[in-house]
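Action item from last week, closing it out:
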Amino acid sequence: MFQLDGAVTLWISLILTLATTFSIVIFWKKILRRGILNFLTRFLLITICQILLVVSVGLSINRTNGFYSSWGDLFGQGVDYSAVAVASTAATKVDSAVLKVAQKSIDGQVIIKEIVHGKNSGISNVVYLVLPKSAVTSIENGTAIDMNKTKVVEFFVGYPSQPENWLRSLDLTKALAISEKANPGFSIIGVIPTVNVAGVQDLECMNFPKPGVQTETWLTTDVRTFVNNRLGILPSRWGVIGVSTGGWCAAMLSIKHEDLFYGAVSIAGYYRPALSKNTDPLVKAQLEVKYDFPTLESAMTGKMDMLLIASVGDIYSFAETKKFRALSHSNINYQYIELPSGGGHNARVWISQLGPSLAWLKNH
């Protein structure tokens, strides 16, 4: 009932904040104690008001941006989905009964929330499917989705965001609907997997040395197997879009798995592992070697199309993108969009680039 990102929790917090504030204002003169006790009592009441206000603002920001989806995520414990997850290899095909109870979105889109267990990674977590009207119609009619007119695009959030961020603050369904209107006869199936699968630990979409978390395998092999089985579609190369840390994930995974992706969009991303200081130094050193971008690129057998988007006002991403562009890239065909200094590292900037990103993927 009292979910971290739930409306009920937010409203209760707001009501408590307002009720406490008004009560203190009304009864301020009646709060009278002698000496130091008077000061301490009033100081405590003011502090309580401020704490409640900060909690309410924090809940509101988290609900809007989808940083943490549960109390466990907030306190670094994560959520154990293993008991309710469906094996990626055993997923049954979506039918009209599933669509009937799924969340309806704009222009006939349907959003399906799935709890998936990855056979290869051992990870159990949330995956969202955003189905366009054309795919919904095909499923309702009992016919196969026309993949000649449909592309699959995987969407990665940054750290510490959750997949809901794409559906809330980034308003992905609106961008997909606009894209479909602008391109009649062409549709995109959106796949939004959980990227941050280990609470507050920043995994950078990599496979940590076993028995560490296998996020790369989850995002590539397991999610893909599940989607293919769930939608009854044949394996194909997907597009991928990521923001912030998700931009690194999109770029890195696309060249490391060039057989699985046809193009990648990195919005406000970077191009080397940015592990936290809390990461074990030996593990960090291993991962920085294993996921060195130039090394991964040199191992490619083909070429990857990539769109890089950076804002002058986004200091870190802009600097990292500049370094990336200064290098020679024989196996990457990239285009670059530079946004003016009025931007920054935020959802407002990223939303403005979803349309161009989807259009770019359509043409590749």
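Closing note: The longest strand covers residues 110-117.
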